[in-house]
Amino acid sequence: MREYLDAERLHVVRGKGCWLEDGEGRRYLDGNASVWTNVHGHGDEELDDALRAQLGRLAHATMLGLNHDAASALSAALAGLTSGRLSRVFFSDCGAMAVEVAVKQSLQYWQLTGRGERRRIVAMEHGYHGDSFGTMALGGAQGFHDRFAPWLYRVERMPAPVHEECAGEVRESDAARSLDWLDRYLAEHGRHTACLVLEPSVQGAAGMRQQPPGFVAAVAQRCRAEGVHLILDEIFVAFGRLGELLVSEAEGVKADFVCLAKGLTAGYLPLGATLTSEAVFEAFLGATSERRTFFHGQTFTGNPLASAVALKNIEKLRRPGVLEGMRRRAQTLGEELREAFGGHPNVAAYRQRGFAACLDLRPAGAGRSWDADLRAGHRVCLEARRRGLILRALGDSIPIVPPPSISDDELRFLITTLRASLDAVAPGLPDFTHFQ
After folding, report:
1. CATH architecture classification, 48-318
2. Collapsed DSSP state (helix, strand, coil) of residue 311
3. Who contacts 210 (Cβ-Cβ below 8 Å, separation ≥6)?
4. Which site among 196, 248, 303, 326 is 20 to 30 Å from 343 CA-CA?
């Protein structure tokens, strides 16, 4: 906050398409999709109309004992994403809560079905699932949450696989260590494990760490064999981010829970959703005296305005050619990244899958990194802002996460501006480095 208070602050007042505008009329390409949420651009006419139409009917009503047509229609659409296999939807108001709900439902399911010994939880290293206490415990990005470790519940940590690719070119790939660990763990503790939680395909907050194709399916097969619930956190990767509505469905993975948020409402309003099966739902049915109730009430659960926008978002993504166009433009993004940053002296590595890309920066010279207080990545992002591009660094890594609706010309502007910003900043940084 000291840095924020000391710096020139940017206040945006309007947005259209992939662009934001400040109070002085300056325009900026939204290179992080407003924290990885925006799908169709700002001010999309159809989404705006869906929101206005819902405003004329119902802005909000509790779903504690009531229902409304927007949530009912959205529930049906979400169930349709898994062809009805995950037919039950529990709404919340953000991604962290969607994951909290899945874990709580899994633990309670095992209690209600007479297998309360299933209490262990597995999550993957480098994971990030939110900032509530429950999701902090699940997360493996310890730089964010390590100070709260004394208050977090125990989670078994599965090693993440190694995989790096850009524009379809694979430079490194190895899932053996991760799967070997899981095999050994499940052989010893599978009967006492409730669930395994992971972000499929790409771990966003970890710097767009990738998994090899087929990895999630291999994990799912092992979980199914041991009766362990698989919880997939698709909050970042779904709704066009990787060119699919749901990554798990595209890969043929049948999870027990799928958690959604971010792109669910195309970046318009907060909404979370936890999808699960009829078998899980039925475990919670019974008389009050049986104490099967799932207690998780949130004030704005299933908000009608958010539900109406989410429903229109899904409709737009299902139209012929929309996802195909996103996949084609994502290929263009990868090609532009490779051309601009392949072999660059200040780029240690770059990764890209769909519209989830990242540069890892370094001083010229392998094996070194800038001192953290230099804030090299942040300085590059500030320079990009001066040139009309909004990005946000994670340490000395720079995620590139534009709206999937971005045009080819806008992609080229993004990459050329980022390259110019890096070339302007890196040579002027003090030669204050240390060996890693």
Report:
1. 3-Layer(aba) Sandwich (3.40)
2. helix
3. 163, 164, 165, 201, 202, 203, 351, 353
4. 326
Give 187's contacts (C-beta < 8 A, 6+ positions apart): none
Distances 189 to 111, 138, 186, 265 between C-alpha atoms, Å: 17, 18, 5, 38
| Class of the CATH-defined domain 2-30+320-435 | alpha beta
pLDDT digits (tens, 9 = 90+) for 27-84: 999 999 999 999 999 999 999 999 999 999 999 999 998 999 999 999 999 999 999 9
Q: How far apart are CA 276 and CA 279, in angstroms?
A: 8
Distance in angstroms (rounded) separating the CA atoms of residues 421 and 323: 31
How many angstroms from the chain centroid is the CA of residue 84? 23
Residue 357, SS3 per DSSP: strand
Closest CA to 129 of 151, 159, 102: 102
Query: Would the pLDDT of 293 be above 50?
Result: yes
Q: How many Cβ atoms from other residues are within 10 Å of residue 419's Cβ?
A: 19
Nearest to residue 257, comparing CAs of 237, 272, 282, 274? 274
For the stretch 90-137, pLDDT in tens is 999 999 999 999 999 999 999 999 999 999 999 999 999 999 999 999
Q: What is the pLDDT of residue 367?
A: 61
Phi first, then psi, for residue 175 (nearest 5°) are -105, 0
* 435 band by pLDDT with thresholds 50, 70 and 90: very low
Q: Where are the domains of the chain?
A: 2-30+320-435, 48-318
DSSP label at residue 300: T
Structure tokens belonging to residue 339:
């051309």
CA nearest to 233, candidates 205, 265, 257: 257
Q: How many CA atoms lie within 13 A of 398 on its CB side?
A: 30
